[in-house]
Specification:
Two copies of one chain form a homodimer. By secondary structure, the first copy, chain A, is an alpha+beta fold. In chain A, α8 (about 195-205) packs across α9 (about 245-265). Chain A has nine helices and eleven strands. The first copy, chain A, starts with 7 loop residues before the first helix and ends with a helix. In chain A, the strands form two sheets. In chain A, strands 1, 2, 3, 4, 5, 6, 7 and 8 form an eight-stranded antiparallel beta sheet that branches. Chain A has a three-stranded antiparallel beta sheet with strand order 9-10-11. Chains A and B meet through β1, β2, β5, β6 and β7 of A and β1, β2, β5, β6 and β7 of B.
């Protein structure tokens, strides 16, 4: 793991109020989750003209396992480029909040060779991601292509970045809670403010927290911003096992409240 | 001009209800307008490792004339790549509406060589686009870079695409109305429905239009979607000269209504 952020370490010099060894998603898992949530990206290919220049183009994509797949025209520049040199990468970037810090957004660059494919699984994966493309999938100059990932670079924001191997990438699964995370967060913040404070008091060193806001949830746990006497501080709480559904999260949140109240003697 | 859209021509076989030779923004102008409206993009560089692969990375940028400028760390992958090979491109893509057709979005690939620059104009342009970057601009491992545009590929959506020369790019100016276009369109649609119908009746062959919605405005004119007996049809009306401000557009819209009503004898 390396960093190109000059202040990554300064942000971490503040003592954490929770165990930093709690399970968290790996970079491979974070990158897979990001890629699964987005269906447009930038393809980089080696240009035929001007020869040898790296050429970025906007593409729509689907995923077969961890490999991006495309439906592209022989007439397009990137297709001509790939016919000349199969080496390519795909930059998948999180869309930002207006006014937010763009460099805090997650992104991943998948590198590998991109070649035509007639596999039914490739076609099915692309059309699942882009159903409206079905009407031109049969045009003679359009073909399906697959980028076989050889390595990738993940950047989750400031100070969270690394190269990931293709084996780690292939083994990783997108977070099953990603599609429902926003709804879980909204629900907990709207309706369970007291539970969030109890979690902070019982499961972290933010024992003076006066309020807490859930900021993230993933299969391995959830994160809050706790308001303490020293200001807002991040808190992470782990689930006892990886969870996959809203129902499992709901049950675990209830169990955690009971544990927290027992621990606190309330 | 070429096309990688198999159905671009079919959409054009329907008879236009306005003069197709009305002045419209050139592709260079459309691309400059797009680039001026966005400040994040994908940089493509030639990777040091894996050697020779085209490497896409997320970047923030500013513009000096038509050249993109960056503030990047020596520790970042793309910087190492550019130190090894200055050839690069920048893909700037319009953000989409949720649910819209992603391939209808505008995008431009600027190709050229990217090199460090100590020009004050480069620094000023980057910091104008990213004021919050000032706090790390002085860090030792961060430097300003400039991509000198040699050629570019513009894709405005289906059937609107071409290569643009660096001289056309340098000469083009972003549309001065772009920052206020949304507000002009909203105002015309909310408050001047009768004027829009009058424009269609007087200045196009949509003489049976029963309603019209403004869809775009640029320095050279504006566009509407007119509801005719044959369904919705695009209409363009030209301004008599290039306009630059909301006030000039307002005055011209009033003058056009007078001309339209005189023409229609109302």
């Amino acid at each position: 793991m390396s960093s190109n952020d000059p202040h990554a370490s300064s942000g971490r010099s503040q003592e954490l109020l929770y165990d930093p060894n709690l399970p968290t998603p790996s970079h491979a898992e974070r990158a897979r989750t990001l890629a699964a949530s987005i269906n447009t990206a930038t393809l980089a290919s080696v240009a035929v003209e001007p020869a040898g220049y790296p050429y970025g183009s906007f593409v729509t994509f689907g995923l077969v396992g961890g490999d991006p797949v495309f439906l592209i025209s022989e007439l397009a520049e990137h297709t001509k480029n790939l016919r000349g040199d199969a080496r390519a990468s795909l930059l998948i970037a999180e869309e930002g909040e207006p006014g937010g810090d763009p460099l805090a957004r997650g992104r991943v660059t998948l590198l590998g060779r991109c070649q035509p494919s007639t596999d039914e699984s490739v076609k099915a994966a692309f059309l699942a991601a882009h159903p409206n493309a079905a009407y031109y999938a049969g045009f003679g100059d359009f073909h399906f292509w697959r980028l076989q990932v050889e390595s990738l670079r993940y950047i989750g924001g400031y100070g969270r970045m690394s190269w990931v191997t293709s084996s780690d990438w292939s083994a990783a699964r997108p977070d099953p809670l990603a599609p429902v995370a926003a709804e879980i967060i909204r629900h907990m913040n709207d309706d369970h403010a007291a539970a969030l404070i109890a979690y902070c008091h019982a499961f972290s060193r933010a024992t003076d927290a006066t309020s807490a806001t859930m900021t993230a949830v993933d299969r391995y746990g959830f994160e809050m911003s706790a308001i303490t006497a020293a200001g807002p501080r991040p808190i992470r709480v782990a689930f006892p096992r990886a969870l996959a559904t809203t129902e499992e999260v709901r049950a675990e949140m209830v169990a955690l409240v009971k544990r927290a109240r027992a621990h606190l003697g309330r």
